[in-house]
Write a structure and sequence with these properties.
The chain is elongated, with a radius of gyration of 19 Å. Helix content is 60%, strand content 3%. Strands 1-2 form a two-stranded antiparallel sheet. It has 8 helices and 2 strands, in the order αααααβαααβ. It has one domain. By secondary structure, it is mainly α.
Length: 178
C-alpha cells in the first residue's frame, strides 16, 4: 500500500456527527475500532496459540496427566513450569507490540483498520512518527494487560480515544474517502 491513508485529507466534523475528535478530525466509532482490533487479533492469536502449544508441549514432558478439567491442568502447568508460562506471556506481549507497529510502518494501518476504513494520525493529521507509533503500541500492550482498561476508556471519552491514544498523541479516524 502507498501512503494514500497518510496523504488523505481529514474531514471536519459535520453537523450530524455526535462527537468530534480534534478540530478537523472525525473520530472513528468505538464499535469500528473494536471490530478492527478483533480482525487484527485473529491471526495474532492463531500464531501465538500455535507457538504456545509447541512450547508448552515440548516442556510438558514429565508432567503427570490429571483427571482434572483443562483450567486445573493449566494451573498445574503454570505451577510446574513458571518460566515456560512466563515465556508464553512475554511472547504474546511481543507479538501484540510488533504486529501493529510493523503493519503501521509498512502499510500505514493494520489489516483490520484497512477493512473497516480507519486511519491513524497524529495531532497534525500526518502519519505518526516511528517513535510515536512504538510508544502507542507499547501503551496498547500495557492497556490490554490491565484488563482492557485503556480500551474501555474510549466508552466514556468525548473524543472516543483510548487512554493509550491520549498518552501517545494518536487519533484513530475515519478518513474523508478511502
Amino acid at each position: 500500500m502507498t501512503d494514500h491513508a497518510a496523504k488523505m485529507p481529514i474531514t471536519a466534523p459535520t453537523e450530524g456527527d455526535e462527537r468530534a475528535a480534534a478540530p478537523g478530525f472525525v473520530a472513528a466509532p468505538t464499535w469500528r475500532r473494536w471490530l478492527a482490533l478483533l480482525v487484527d487479533a485473529l491471526p495474532l492469536l492463531t500464531v501465538w496459540l500455535l507457538c504456545a502449544f509447541a512450547i508448552g508441549d515440548a516442556s510438558a514432558s514429565g508432567l503427570p496427566s490429571t483427571p482434572w478439567n483443562p483450567l486445573d491442568q493449566l494451573v498445574d502447568f503454570i505451577n510446574a513450569r513458571p518460566t515456560t508460562a512466563a515465556l508464553i506471556v512475554v511472547m504474546l506481549a511481543a507479538l501484540g507490540f510488533a504486529w501493529p507497529l510493523v503493519a503501521h510502518l509498512v502499510w500505514g494501518r493494520t489489516p483490520g483498520k484497512r477493512v473497516l476504513g480507519l486511519a491513524v494520525v497524529d495531532a497534525r493529521g500526518q502519519r505518526p512518527s516511528t517513535r510515536r507509533l512504538a510508544g502507542w503500541c507499547a501503551l496498547r500492550v500495557l492497556g490490554m494487560a490491565l484488563l482492557f482498561g485503556g480500551v474501555l476508556w474510549a466508552i466514556a471519552d468525548p473524543e472516543r480515544r483510548t487512554l493509550y491514544d491520549r498518552l501517545a498523541g494518536i487519533y484513530v479516524i475515519r478518513p474523508a474517502a478511502d
